[in-house]
Please model this.
Amino acid sequence: MQKKDSTVISNVGTVFEVALTDIQSHEDQPRKAYDDEFIAELAKSIQEYGLLQPIGVMPNNDDLEGYRVVYGESRFRAHKQLGLEKIKATLVTGDPLAVSLIENAQRNDLKPVEQADAVRALIEERSFRHEDVGIILGKSRANISQLVAISKLPEEIKHHCSTSNICKSALIELAMMPDEQKPQAFDAIKKGATVKQARQLKRGTPRPKKDSLLSLGSRFKEKLEKVSTGDLPESELIDLIGLATEIFDHLKLLGGGDISLDDPRSFYES
Model:
């Protein structure tokens, strides 16, 4: 896969006023859910103090006139709600999804699932490598792998998380669980369970058979051999770590409850 240039954003720097009628919302943005109450509060703030930070726009495609919003969609909507005719904007260039993701990430303004889906889109649709996205966002490759794992959670879980305040660490834990355990753990987290309590839910599962542990070990060995030869794609490293965690949990259920090892997730966070 060809390495992407990490310089994906260029701010022209000139702030200008543009008519709202000349601007269109852009669907290809990390943020998918907008809270009406927040937009109303933002509109009130803009009415009282003015717009403190211009929005970022790009020219529309050749066959369309005007601009499209790259970042600042909430500010754009607040201006429309106030019935204002113009808004301050600045021109930006680059991949619009990457630019929007950077701007929102710098302000910590996205839900974990929104950031996760945007990161996965950059990797799968824009051919960015994990390393490239990490450089762009100032995050480690392991952190990018965590976000990719979150993006693969069931849609019903992600939909709920797009409008709630479930923390990133809880979503990482969910992503590492076997699929059959995710619904029960997610229900517990929604009711206020901590990540630690969600982990403990697995202790109540039936005692696993040794055959299942051998199967996990075989899968782990197969992936580990690919790591040693450099053939394991970066996107599968998360699966390898998840397998290691499953093996550890199976050992405890098979009678190793007194095993005292550092939490294998510490490697996951490194």
